[in-house]
Here is the input.
Amino acid sequence: MTGVPGGICNASITNEVDSIYTSDNAVCTSSTKPWSCCSGAGTGSCPAATPNLFSLIASTESSYTQFGYTTANGLDGQWPKESATVPAGKYVGLMQVALQMAQGNTYASPMDTAWNWLTNVQIADDIFSQKLGYIGVIEKNAMNSHPGLQALDGYDAENMALLQYGGFASPTLPSVQYYVVLKVSGIWEWVQNPHASTKGQAYVTKVRNATPPNSTTCN
Here is the structure.
């Protein structure tokens, strides 16, 4: 992955990216949930709904590569993996995050984001936690407006955040999210949104069906 002889083994990458997601208790949105204490918002036990979610995202976004062989600045070699979108290089690295994104309460430098895969993953965690926060606001407003509506479970909250992480939904617009509220047999329920981005729904499915490299040990 690093472009140096031997690289970093897949098991180490898997362990690290999933540890960052689960140890930071990223599945945390609203105060109506038992896991509302996550990400520094309080104390308590906040298990992730999908402990290996970040290895699934890394598999989908970059196939476990922070670097790729290409020509840049007139030099052939291993350079930070860039997105294929226009403009090229808007998103980089293992988790394909924007070059200038928050890391905790500060901003990681573009150089760290592009060249340090651990920084890249931490920024992804910050982004994902932020998305979950947006989902929490949407959920809370929906529950206040629809009597009897149940809270999203952790898995469904992750799906909502994945749609946003992939760039397929506005953070604050309820009508474009992965789930919307509809009345089913006289009861308000969260249902998959038929008007959500088709590409976005495919992205969520692709992440959920991803298969990270199966190496489990490192020499």
In short: The beta strands are 67-72, 75-80, 91-92, 97-98, 102-103, 106-107, 179-184, 187-192.
